[in-house]
Write a structure and sequence with these properties.
mainly beta; elongated; 92 residues; 10 Kd Chaperonin, Protein Cpn10, Chain O
């Protein structure tokens, strides 16, 4: 993981989404138009939190989040999601 210069504010986190599944467990190749949006990713940056709450996740954690959570951004030709920590369901 390279050093990223994006620093989320308040209770936001920056996530690198996992790649979409390329084929099913039975070996069928999934075309790009039918791929599901991933709901899992790795945290690459964490904001400082709010005055009431400190962040509970840290850089390097693999997390599960909502299907339509966050805002997609592109930085240095890589796709990321930035979202509030409350949009994260679990650390795995």
């Amino acid at each position: 993981m390279s050093e990223i210069k994006i620093k989320p504010l308040a209770d936001r986190v920056l996530i690198e989404p996992a790649n979409a599944e390329e084929k099913t467990s039975g070996g069928i190749i999934i075309p790009d138009t039918a791929k599901e949006k991933p709901q899992k990713g790795v945290i690459v940056a964490v904001g400082p939190g709010t005055k009431d709450e400190k962040p509970t996740v840290k850089v390097g954690d693999t997390v599960l989040y909502g299907k339509y959570a966050g805002t997609e951004i592109t930085y240095d030709d890589k796709d990321y999601l930035i979202m509030k920590e409350s949009d994260i369901y679990a650390i795995i």
